[in-house]
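Re: beginner question about structure tokens

> Can someone show what the tokenized structure looks like for a real chain? I only ever see the sequence side.

Sure, here's an example I had lying around. Input first:
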Amino acid sequence: MDDCIFCKIIKGEIPSYRIYEDDKTYAFLDISCDSYGHTLVIPKKHCENVLDCDREYLEAVINTVQKISKHYVQNCGFTGLNVLNASGASAQQSVFHLHFHIIPRKQEDGLNTWGLNEKFDLNLSEICGELAISNK
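And the corresponding structure tokens:
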């Protein structure tokens, strides 16, 4: 896609700090500089989000997420990580090219990536009835 910033990064039209690359995926540091090592993993084929990405590329992306995550924990001194994805504008997706965020973590690093602290009075049985996928 011509106007996609991530497609331009893949083509080398916009510089990036490459962490990893293979034939189907590209991983680079997020320029937001909001946390040490914040990494984005994207497919080299343009798709908007998890809803329209074909299985081959989605599997490649998640395999790369796991490879980088293991590297960060096993070789780089991190003790955990967050893997985040937003699919769709209502989920706060801001760049409409599938991407996963890897946020490497250390104990007591002060980051709060889970902003959902408010509890709601929800009927989980009703919700399950509405959302469950039938095996039929």
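Each token stands for a local structural state, so reading them left to right follows the chain. The chain has a mean pLDDT of 94.
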